[in-house]
Specification:
With about 90 residues, the protein is mainly alpha-helical. The protein has three helices and no strands. It starts with a helix and ends in a 28-residue tail after the last helix.
Amino acid sequence: MSLINFHRILIAVAILFCAGYGVYEFLEFSENGERGSLWISGFFLVVTVGLAYYLRHLKRFLHPGRGGRRVYPPPVSPDHYRGPGSGRRR
């Protein structure tokens, strides 16, 4: 098993944990009505969505420029290479 596959399994387990705990806290909120449980539930469900996005696009995160859009350097004008004070004099 490669390190990348282990990382995927670990992220999948984290997704299951966060989703389960988010649902648990939401059930606690519906039972007790405490706002803290609702905030915790919302936080863990947002983390679940973020981790799912990360797992789906893992190749793009591990290899920027190869797994999706190419990363180009910003365009530079030719005057940039001359250095300061070396502009044309008239």
